[in-house]
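Co-fold these.
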Amino acid sequence: MTEYKPIKKVVSGNYAAAYGALHARVQVVAAYPITPQTSIIEKIAEFIANGETDIQYVPVESEHSAMAACIGASATGARVFTATAAQGLALMHEMLHWASGSRLPIVMVNANRALAPPWSVWDEQTDSLSQRDTGWMQFYAENNQEVYDGVLMAFKIAEDKRVSLPAMIVESAFILSHTYDIVEMIPQELVDEFLPPRDPLYTLTDFDNPISVGALATPNDYYEFRYKEAMAMERAKKVIKEVGREFGERFGRDYSQMIETYRTEDAEIVFMGMGSLMGTVKEAVDVLRKEGYKVGAVKVRWFRPFPKEELYQLAKEVPAIAVVDRNFSFGQEGILFNESKGVLFNTDARPLMKDYIVGLGGRDFTVNDVRTIARDMKKTLEKGKVKEEVVWYHLKR
Amino acid sequence: MEDTLFGEKKAEARKLAFTSVEQYPEAPISLGTTLSNFTGDWRTFMPVINEEKCVKCYICWKFCPEPAIYIKPDGYVAIDYDYCKGCGICANECPTNAITMEKEEK
Amino acid sequence: MEIPESVKKRLTLPAEEHFYAGHTACQGCGASLGLRYVLKAYGKKTIVAIPACCSTIIAGAWPYNTLDANLFHTAFATTGAVISGIEAALKALGYKVKGEDGVMVVGWAGDGGTADIGLQALSGFLERGHDAVYIMYDNEAYMNTGIQRSGSTPYGAWTTNTPGGKRHFLEKRHKKKVIDIVIAHEIPYAATASDAYPEDFLRKLRKAQKIPGPSFIQLFAPCPTGWRSPTDKSIEIARLAVQTAYFPLFEYENGKYRINMPSPKKEPKPIEEFLKLQGRFKYMTKEDVETLQQWVNHEWEKLKKLAEVFG
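Predicted complex below.
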């Protein structure tokens, strides 16, 4: 194994994603521009223009076609990458199911952006979370480094034959996509050692033994294919941990856990959330600890597959959990809140849980906001029961 | 099995049925050909070839949508009744009326 | 089965079959016949993409494949995009695509999947210049869902959502000229073809194979079920569609138009000859027939002019 010396670059989250795709030796990119993702595919075009890669670049006419072209390319046997956001992801919806149902390990970066109307280009997680049932793995990056690392790991996990499912790396609009930060990149030969060429489950290029993919299955057969997919997603948990550990051993950043805990050991209150806002939350935890609050943080890295076991272990130890949801499911509640409550139902873990709807449409979420939530949560803890489950935290009243 | 259009491939074709989830492939890829599906039982009228009238023009062979018409070593055409659905295109297109559609007794 | 060499020489189509019997197309289906021809032209070294359409069923329910070629079933709107992706991947993986010994990438979609829901993806495919062949098999309605009108349904046709009735609610728009939309992209090769003229169709398929860049063929493929026509008349109807100039066969190659059939020098047969064999046209009044005839005349004159000026 060659000695690892990282190459430090100051890049935006979008450029981190593009470098991830480049270093993963992606063979086909089919994409359509949409704010705030666009500079990912611009950067990849620049790599091609500069002669750094021979990626086949398909500048499609919509996101629906972007995902369709990715599916065609992946089924043929290539390593395929794309990127999108919000409206584009919503337009892709049909094809997201098609990618996972065809068991194709496509990797896509989604820049979280609020859905219209009213128009918004700013950060919110509802776009990606409303694709939770499409059979895609979802990794929420906290910072640009995690975007880069996430893309590389996602290919290895997705292409593992125990998994063979597509993966989405999710970054925040502007907060990550357009904000520059130091990212430690991995020399190409070391990426190659970590991520060998794709060995597909099937291809469309065995002309002596032709196959069809995705033919009509009657009620007598369809069910089994869905079970296979469900089991692949279950197996993905193990593969995620394996690959995350290997990544840590090779490159010093460990991703062997599907959730990341921060100062939770003796915490009375734990803030739980996903993506870039967890950077703010962790900083707030340090501040609040100094102010005497016994608080910690839990970042959910992988939303699909869902870290059920990890959340149970956490919930057993923690008296109160404040979920910060930068998303909402109408007629219900924040999506992470909903799912994390759900996994505890048949267990003995009964923390007090409250849902804070924050930052929708890019509304700023600060350390002060975390302090306010901590105060509110402390009152709840003292009362010993949750009165108001869902709090529209920023609402002008 | 007689030597028809798909010969060995027809003989090898099997109906596939799966009784446990382990038997399924991981992805929904095909495992066989449709040759195991005998569509001949759809037929109401069957084409009958009169070799005396046949001029070996192969127009019937050309237009069969199944395909269920094959060419024998002697150059005459024959019909694989395992697949022929009895559409009658062959009879309609035959320039010498060498093919007639006859009501099939089942 | 081995066909004697003496016979092979007399066949006007390749003897090899890469389309298996046992499929579940309706009796007298023009789509299945067309797919048989495509595979005769291109053989095994072919990747076919099929969106939602009759051919989804014809190509075999899981776990069977009717095609002796690789087949990817895809979503309704995506044929143009999926073949673009397949072509890009083949190139990335080092395959020769198109040409005599290259891998053939074929999109095989119905008229609904081409003229309507798939038009955008088709346009993208054509405009980007991928090395693949898109074949629209035109049976002039959404047949797989049970005969609903599409953009390609002709004036005066009965379908289940233009059912005629007391208010004479039949298809009120003329057939969308998809081939003209395609030609507007100025691709190297576009053509119309018909199940009734397979030699012509195969010649066009081979031309499409040789010419680099995107090719498009609109194939007239009768549907006895949807056209309410006798199953044995499929070829006859397809032939009449050409002879009446309702569906003329022509090629557009590097900017030049060439009419194949019917002869521009002769008067085409009257449209009634095409209409009378099909139950779907039985509610048309005399005026309706006249309206359709005028449209056919107009389009035919236009095509002849194009062939004259850009021939």
